[in-house]
Amino acid sequence: MTKRIIDHPILGKLDDTDIISFTFNNKEYRGLKNESLAAALLANGVRTLRSHEESGAPRGIYCNIGHCFECRVTVDGQQGVRACLTPIKENMVVTSNEKLLTTVRDWRPENE
Amino acid sequence: MSKVIIIGAGPAGLSAAITIAENGLEVLVLDEYMIAGGRLLGQLYEEPNGNWWNGIKESKQLYEKALDLGVKIQLHTAVSNLEKIDSSWVIYTATETYYTSHLLLATGATEAPLPIPGWTLPGVMSVGAAQVMTNVHRVKPGNRGVIIGVNVLSSAIAMELQLAGVQVACITLPKMSLVTKESGNPMNVMNSLLHVSHMAPSAFVKFGSKLMKIEFMKKMGITFFPKNGVKMWDIPIMLRKAVIEIYGDNEVEGVTMATISPTGEVIPGTEEKVQADFVCIAGGLYPLAELAAVAGCPFYHIEELGGYVPLHNERMETALEGLYVAGNITGIEGAKVAASQGVAAGLSIVHNNGTSNQEQNIKKAIQDIEHTRDNAFIQFHPAVKEGKQKLQHYWEEHLNTVKDMVGN
């Protein structure tokens, strides 16, 4: 089932012919050329873009226009890229940021 | 002579760029988004004359007009810092540093979040995010959503979602807390909704809103407000229910709602689950003014304008030489007002640069802003004019302070 709005009563028909492929966490996806990474992934049913650096909790888009940085991913090796502001390109390699070891946390056994 | 630089390619920034280029100056517009238009892009509503206001079309027209006039528009460029060195404004981006003697901040607005348990789950997004996904990217934010926060923006976007075939289960309130305050209080929400009743297609709502001008009727209205809401565009608007939690294992699966008293307290035992695969949080808009703060502008908190706004005058000049503001950074209003402010800012820049005398045009542009404001279809705050008067008063105080300092 597609999540794309192909026909819109006011905005008209969507031109969805220019399709390219990219990978997200080693899985191949297809999207429309120059659409945002966040939109392309959501159209594929992908909501979780990363794990929170400290808690590991899943996170997805929040504001969708670059203000909140909730959608940060790694694009072609560059960390902290906002998926909502990044147009997808052919063969783009995208990965999630995973939970990190953090030095500010108290690592003694009783806190595990 | 350096180029004029504008930060923000929304209706204000692009209108200013067009005005400045028409008067023969070089302009560079920076914007961090991938398409020009700003918040205008997502807008889609029917005007009283039956025409559809299509934000994508409007944005494209402004963008192309600016390009035709030789304006340089650099998208995908975020400004991280700015400062004044000697008589120049220095603008830092990830790749380049720019210098100008006239800088316009047209950075627009951002959405206030409402913290609700479960709000970090994937599938929870700001209502503006759902709007951009639906209208600009043409991807459904989900199949069935709940909108938390009843206000002008959320009602308009609920209608847009429905237009695109996305089901909106209901628009409802957040549970009242220290943070959600007014947006969780049914009485306050009802008051703030009354001034948008002209947008309601339903005669019942229009008629009801007239009665609601009487204080007693308001109390009665909220006390007897149907528990299952009043429908607008077939979407239940629930003022007597609130979301107490968003649930789901790894993604949104639904919300827990409860009935609330007329003053917003949750009535125990009334909790119910409503299934949804996405949730929109609508906390309202506030001016996005960080760059004005970094620059050192004095700020005032003006409720009617949506929050803290940098001090400026009717000519869109800030208290800092060579720094101008236009659009929603000056207060939350519609795109047409933003565009008219852009024109005024553009003329002020042309005038102050000494390119040509624009006194008459500036006066006319200021009147145009007023006129556009008076005729605005969507008003975000009923007392926006009072807010503007407060700001003007602060500006006069500022001028007197400067005069005193110079006098001593």
UniProtKB/TrEMBL annotation, chain A:
It comes from the Bacteria. Keywords: Oxidoreductase. GO terms for molecular function: iron-sulfur cluster binding; sarcosine oxidase activity. Pfam families: Fer2_4. The keyword Oxidoreductase applies. Its EC number is 1.5.3.1. Coiled coil: none annotated. The keyword Kinase does not apply. This is Sarcosine oxidase subunit alpha.
UniProtKB/TrEMBL annotation, chain B:
Its EC number is 1.5.3.1. Pfam families: Pyr_redox_2. SUPFAM superfamilies: FAD/NAD(P)-binding domain. It comes from Sporosarcina limicola. Residues 3-342 form the FAD/NAD(P)-binding domain. This is Sarcosine oxidase subunit alpha. One of its GO terms (molecular function) is sarcosine oxidase activity. Keywords: Oxidoreductase. The lineage of its organism: Bacteria, Bacillati, Bacillota, Bacilli, Bacillales.
